[in-house]
Amino acid sequence: MEILFFVAMMSLLVYVMYRNITLVKRYRHNKEYIECYKEMLAGTETAYERTNAYIESEDSDEFKNKARVLKLYEQMDTEEDISETLNDLDLKEIFYSKGKYSKKQTLMNVDVFVWIYLVMAKARRLSKFDVLNGLCEKLTELEGLDRRVEYQLCRAIYNALCEKEDAGVEFLSSLLDGGFAQYEYEKNLIGLFKRFASATLAYSGEPMEDYYKEDLHSFAATQIGKTYMRDLEILEKYPPRKEQEEETKQEEEPKEVSQEETKEGENDR
Could you give the CA distance from residue 260 to residue 92 in angstroms, rounded to a whole number? Predict the structure, then answer.
């Protein structure tokens, strides 16, 4: 019995050490990515150069591809050939584990969806349909992610921006009405997803309740909302309130779900 207990304790110790090493490594990768994220959102002059340098130096395929999504946003303003970045982008490295959809992996990288929404809006404003269609094709390849609200919102935004037949309106409207119980989603961010939905409906000229129209002013007071609504060219119609701008001056950083929050996702579906 003592030998079995010793073996069990040693196994637990090895696991804890491995887990701690993994978390330290992830923090190292994530730290510089967050700086790139913040600079890109703030529109600093060094954002693009810093993101490129990060991609070149990063040895994690997961974080390298997260940064490529950031790069797409700024690269649309350059004369560079954007097709190379699109071709190199592998979303499976971000949302998959062991070759298949991972709920835990997706929860840790849910911030990437926000940047996909931002890239899509800017691509539409600049008529970069190669970017819009390229991202849509990449998303279509992700088997298993269609069970998530974040993914369905990507598809709905794409349909709305490309003025497809249903324009994604049905899903966007149902998201505002709370009709998403059949999907997986990050609970702490569902309010943000609803704001993306209402902004996209406003872009499409679809009717909305006054509450959601008023809330767009609050969304516009955030850096993410202002960026998205500016690219949708609806910011002048729903400008931020001055008092709301003061309330939201705190930094907006990508949210990586904590270990406690991902416990429900330990068993990937």
Answer: 24
**∠ at Cα 230 (33, 82), nearest 5°?**
55
pLDDT 10s digits, 214-232 = 999 999 999 999 999 999 9
Q: Which of 262, 267, 117 is nearest to 187 (CA)?
A: 262
Q: Please state, in angstroms and rounded to a whole number, the distance separating the CA atoms of residues 8 and 2.
A: 10
What is the C-alpha to C-alpha distance for residues 100 and 103, in angstroms, rounded to an integer? Answer: 10
Mean pLDDT of 195-218: 93
Domain segments of the chain as ranges:
1-108, 148-250
User: Roughly what angle, to the nearest 10 degrees, separates helices 111-125 and 129-140?
Assistant: 150
Asked if the model's pLDDT at residue 250 lies above 90, the reply is no
Cα(228)–Cα(225) distance, integer angstroms:
5
Length of the chain: 269
Which position has the higher pLDDT, 58 or 243?
58
More confident residue, 11 or 195: 195
- Separation of alpha carbons 171 and 190, rounded Å: 14
CB 229 within 8 A of CB 221: no
Give the up-direction half-sphere exposure of residue 78: CA atoms within 13 A in the CB hemisphere.
Answer: 13
Average pLDDT over residues 224-249: 83
